[in-house]
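chain below, 320 aa
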Amino acid sequence: MKRFLAVVSLCSLELCAQFPGASSQRELRGQVVSDQPFAETFTVELNATGVAQTAALKSYTSPNGDFQIDGVSDGNYQLTLTDQQGRVIERQLVHVDSSQSSIEVRLPSNKDEAPPSGSVTLAGLSHKVPRKVRNELKTAEEARSRGDHQKSILHLQKALRIDPDCAAAHNDLATDYIVLKQFDKALAELDRAAKLDPAAWVVPMNQAVCLMQIGRFEEAEKAARRAVQLNGSSPRTRYALGLVLANERKFTPEAIDNLLRASSEAPTARLVVAQIFVDKGRIPDAREQLRLYLDGCSGERCKAVQNSLERLEHAGERSK
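prediction:
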């Protein structure tokens, strides 16, 4: 059983980078990609985050994985990908603006993967989870994969009534609360998980996610630094710290370094770095980051970033 799986993906949380010529509503294009061949179509659903509940935007993929959603306002969304049986295949947070109006959704690999480095801790190994609790965690995970977070919560609460010291259950319960925007409850559960297993780096990772969602960036920075301290080799912890610093407008070498170290796993980190360089007046460096982001991209998915690069190039020519 994989422990401490975060439902909210940090690698898709974006700083709202604003390049010249941004518009408030746009066409979102994307593509579903995989390292394994697939022959079915998928449903793509967008739900706005951080605002009052609005109707979901929905589209369907073509046989080659392309999709298009019209009339998407700038902002943050939860993207959910489901198969023809209604099973949730992937869920991630995405940002849409003039620099990010096209996205790539990568399907999980079919291969068994080892748990993330640092997720197996002494506290985790020494705590024996009762069989009934393991069953409740599994049932909760299945409900969460279908997008039924309320049912997942019920099973996790049942697990915690049996075993109040199960750090994994507290962490997973927090991720459900984050998706449902019940941030105070999420932070309370993460605080309990951190006390039970102080070495589990994904717990402060989730704390950073939650605190960023509600704008408590100073506390988010502290949590992200704790995650980096526990597992500095993870691009996800580096991305979290870089994003927090950028949101605090701490456009420091440390912020840039963390974002660039995350860019191999989270290419959109380069867009944040580009915006930092624009803010600093380092236009040639900003253009270079956009070029690196575009390297290997093709078609409509990267058109918006290409347009931003062209605008910066034209701005540079006018300044000569």
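The longest strand covers residues 25-33. DSSP finds twelve helices and seven strands in the chain.
thats it, cya
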